[in-house]
Design a protein that fits this description.
The chain is mainly alpha-helical. It has one domain: Orthogonal Bundle (Arc Repressor Mutant, subunit A), CATH 1.10.10. 72% of the residues lie in helices and 0% in strands. The protein is elongated, with a radius of gyration of 15 Å. The termini are far apart.
Length: 104
């Protein structure tokens, strides 16, 4: 892949890292990269190894682990601050990634 593509994807990754607690849509990420949604998804997956939304969820789960282990926040607070729309969605992603529930 060319350097321009790398710079565009790096810009999106930086945006995701800064805004992972907010609602992130594929359309928004594609706009940041200045690619069409379809092309962005293909390029991102080829360069990063996972789909854009899988990457977003991984960043959110990693951030949630920091909040769970280093603060006294409730699971509900952590789920919200990590960008998940509900505790049940947060629990499902957390369990899929770490093999246990956030409460454990």
């Amino acid at each position: 892949m060319n350097l321009d593509y790398r710079e565009r994807i790096d810009k999106v990754i930086a945006y995701i890292e800064e805004h992972s607690g907010q609602s992130l849509k594929l359309d928004t990420l594609a706009e940041i990269s200045h690619f069409s949604k379809f092309h962005f998804s293909r390029i991102f997956t080829a360069m990063v190894g996972v789909t854009p939304m899988a990457f977003v969820n991984r960043k959110r789960i990693q951030h949630s682990l920091v909040l769970l282990t280093e603060t006294n926040k409730t699971i509900l607070e952590v789920a919200g601050q990590s960008g998940f729309e509900s505790v049940s969605v947060f629990n499902a992603h957390f369990k899929r990634y770490y093999g246990c529930t956030p409460g454990r």
